[in-house]
Specification:
Domain Activator of Hsp90 ATPase homologue 1/2-like C-terminal (chains A, B): 17-150
Radius of gyration of chain A: 15 Å
Helix content of chain A: 25-40%
CATH topology of chain A: Alpha-D-Glucose-1,6-Bisphosphate, Chain A, domain 4
Oligomer: homodimer
Family (chains A, B): Belongs to the AHA1 family.
Number of helices of chain A: 4
Number of strands of chain A: 7
InterPro entries (chains A, B): ASHA1/2-like_C, START-like_dom_sf
Protein name (chains A, B): SRPBCC family protein
Strand order of the largest sheet of chain A: 1-7-6-5-4-3-2
Pfam families (chains A, B): AHSA1
Structural class of chain A: alpha+beta
Distance between the termini of chain A: 29 Å
Number of domains of chain A: 1
């Protein structure tokens, strides 16, 4: 997977856990809800149908009751290896009215651990810059800390 | 496959040919170019990488030299059964700047023939109406006549 530095944002980390618990945290809604948003935001609802065209929907709630619903679909599901999803398409592959990003998460076994890489692909450099200004690196970093802590506890 | 009549346009036809030659006409660029546009428009260039996220690109040329490039990607490729593609995403699943439609083509064996169904899914009722006004029914109908004639000649 190569990325276009003008359009993509990438988080890469070597994690000292095998792929299985990380995959579980990414693909089981009751686990996803526990780490997917950096606190104090929380995911309060999550729906996942793990197949191409299947729904991936979350509701994020802020500390003051703000609500950010997000609905999209999965594009590729390769168990314990690769997960691709987007908000550019609704379930059943219908084009969405507005697109923000495609997410590509790759889990590569690395000895007893995992080489983990999560990328956000955007349509334009402006969308990438907006995402970076929204706090991509800090937000995805904190969420990944939460992911690792949860996976370690399983 | 059920459709939303406010958002989708559907062409359905029983064709007295087996699936194989129809599938070939849809998936081999040198064949696709011969039928995909209703004459006098022609597809002069076609690139297809038949896997999820793989390129589906065509260049349509009009009788007065007009050019309509279209680039998107495949979303599902089930040999001789189902082909899904969109212009809402570029190759590699990057969101496109603008989305017009997702195409879903289903080939169902029906005795010695094929029950053929091609649907265009849009994001909004306005996009669907625009596509209908552009001549969806006549255009896709004529192209399908060309598809059947070419498949019969193989």
């Amino acid at each position: 997977m190569t990325h276009d530095t003008k359009l993509d944002l990438v988080l890469e980390r070597k994690i000292d856990l095998p792929v299985a618990p990380l995959w579980a945290c990414w693909t089981r809604p009751e686990l996803l809800k526990q780490w997917f948003c950096p606190l104090p935001w929380r995911v309060t609802e999550a729906e996942m149908d793990l197949r191409p065209g299947g729904i991936f929907s979350t509701l994020m709630r802020g500390p003051d009751g703000e609500e950010h619903p997000n609905v999209g679909c999965f594009l590729e599901v390769v168990t314990e290896r690769r997960l691709v999803f987007t908000d550019a398409m609704l379930p059943g592959f219908r084009p969405a009215r507005e697109a923000f990003m495609t997410g590509i998460v790759v889990f590569e076994p690395n000895g007893s651990g995992t080489h983990y890489r999560a990328a956000a692909l955007h349509a334009t450099a402006e969308a990438r810059e907006k995402h970076e200004a929204m706090g991509f690196h800090e937000g995805w970093g904190k969420a990944t800390d939460q992911l690792v802590a949860l996976a370690r506890s399983l």
